[in-house]
Input
Amino acid sequence: MLGLSDPRPREPAVMAAFLYRLGALVHRRRRTVLLVWLAVLGAAAALAATADGSYEDDFSIPGSAAQRTLDTVEQRFPAAAGASAQVVFVAPPGRRVAEFRTVVASTVAAAATAPRVAATADPFTAGTVSADGRVALATVAYREDRTRLPDGTLEALADVFDPAREAGLRVELGGPAYADGAGEGGQGSEAAGLLVALVVLAVTFGSLAAAGLPLLTALLGVAVSLAGLAAVAGVLTVPATAPPMALMLGLAVGIDYALFILARHRSQLAAGMPVAESAASATGTAGTAVVFAGLTVVIALAGLAVVGIPLLTAMGFAAAAAVLVAVLVAVTLVPAVLGLAGDRLRPRPGSRAARREAGEGRRPAG
Output
């Protein structure tokens, strides 16, 4: 009748229809899809190993007044612009470091001739001796920052102080020149976060299989992203801040996007839908939200290039690539794993998911 809306269901959106067909195809070829992703991970890891790339701590901002000032300082005062190392001399118990003044002075003077060294500071001249006289601190300044020092430079400096060690002193080297690259040492926090996420998801779903699925798929996606980033570092300049950024965002959106599809899939299974139909339907519905959300994040991160700062541009592109991989994992690998899991993901009768679905089914229409 004219003037009344058509009660028949409308044709699904183009994206939803495409993802539905993709989900159905992936479910049928689930083992092949899993093997393809594992092959992609292996290929990326192989490229990363052969590329032998390294990350750089380059925080320069070309064209800015601050960068021009830093460049001027580096040109006119190289000792102040480069990396520095601290050398600690510790005398044996019951003795003072002043008793070893000759060997300390000679080794510090020899350090001034080591590769890339601009200047040194003798602890007795600079007054950097502890109150009890057992410890002395010498400083070694390099001409370049740590990322520009050739391989073997720091090892050569350590060898200079062998005579002091032979004389009975304990010699330790440290400082900015020996600092770890950005992002190292953070694996513990990510591991703790994953453990907390596993516990929360296990309580929410009441199933370890359902809780582990988004974590495993997210980890595989992050592994592919980081391996690919390491391979790119072999041919392009990649800042050391890019891998941690890709890791954090890749894990976050990887778990989130997989949960979108998994939650819809379990809800449909609780309603009695077959596994194959549910995997395709969840990919077509929840997967559509995943694709649009992921593309929005990718565009926003790529927009960092507009600022014109190489560091932010590289970080944005690295994170955008990790998010894009997470989207691809969500709409391909996740449906494949749903198919492999089969009815093991179906909520048990009487479980929270089953009760929720039953409650929604009893609601009056309209």
Summary: Confidence is low (pLDDT under 50) at residues 1-12, 181-185, 360-366. The two ends are 21 Å apart (CA to CA). The first strand starts at residue 84 and ends at 90. Strands lie at 84-90, 117-121, 135-142, 170-174.
